[in-house]
Predict the structure.
Amino acid sequence: MSKLILLADMLVVWIAAYGAAHWRFGGASLDNQYATLVLATSLIMAGVSSAVYQSFRGGSWLAVLARVKICWFTVSVLLMAWLVFSKTADDYSRVFIASWMGLILLGLLIERSLFMILLRYLSKKGYRTRDVLLVGTGPMSKALSDRVRLSAWSGYRIHQIVDAHELGQVEDLADHYDFDEVWINLAMQDTELIPKVLHALRHSAADIRVVPDMLTYRIINHGITFIMGVPMLDISASSLGGINKIVKLIEDYVLASLILLLISPIMIGIAIAVKVTSPGPVFFKQRRHGWGGEEITVYKFRSMKVHQENDGQVSQATKGDSRITPLGAFLRRTSLDELPQFINVLQGRMSIVGPRPHAVQHNHHYKELIPRYMLRHKMKPGITGWAQVNGLRGETDTLDKMEARVDYDLHYLEHWSLFLDLKIVFFTIFKGFINKNAY
């Protein structure tokens, strides 16, 4: 199946190229120069696609389409880099390149969806099915049943669920039924039953898998990592490994550079206004925790009068705070005070999208009160984030508000994708800048 998909990906590149040529040049033919470019791109597509490809049985529909988008984005970046460094960009029509890449993305999404519809049909007809015996009634059992029911295209069918304590029934089922797979899901306190269950399954030729109890703890980007040949279950790990890290880095540098170029006149005007309306520096610098808990310096336009906190404390701004200047109130309400943080992004300290960084003193306070609080630092802090576009912006004067913000941040870490980042940026532009809770 994977080889068939790789061939289909390459075919999509060629079909898209002929479609773009027909639209741009009024004909579907490609001269040798364009044909060479398309051939090279199709080979790049095959290489990238094989790197991000995973079995259709192993993920959700949205996960498959997300990998398609990552594949397309990577190929687009590599193609642009090749044209720039080979100094051949001017040899090709920009309209052709843009329409071609757009058609490739559309074609890949349609292709993968058709494959999944075909697999769903085959599964309903009894082809490619995998009958499963689910042993245990742990926290994940219901989630597994729901996912199998909603993912008919995967081919999995849970034939029966049996309590792990009923070892006689487990052994009887293993002896008399031809299961393709056995999934063992036990609560953390029942893991000592696993050797007994395996003994009861000793006559079965099925693939046996242990489903870890993922719901006892908030697990971030769970998976298996091999270290020195030893498999280890990831309880808390960053999602930005491998190609994801490269995608996120490119996204940050490209967007930050473009945005800084566009807003530089606004930043100069704000800097002059801050200097004229209130004595003190233009920028406010504060130590905050970044990726991995490392302390970083975050820049903002100064929105308060110069003052000294007592005993090194950092007090959150509140409604009607006398420390805030009239200009500062406007800057904070419209988020314009955050604009210098795009410089932090180019420095590699922050990201465009990510959990908002809190003052070091606030982290020391809340990490003792909110479990999993420090998991927010599994990714670079962002100028905007999932919590902010969902209304959790400004003062967090109660523990409940901070817990809600942390929950949104952890949701972002667990579901990160390039599409989610672009969605957050879009929402930030249209509803995230001005907020009544920002003091």
Summary: The first helix runs from residue 2 to 25. The chain has three domains: 2-124, 130-213, 243-432.
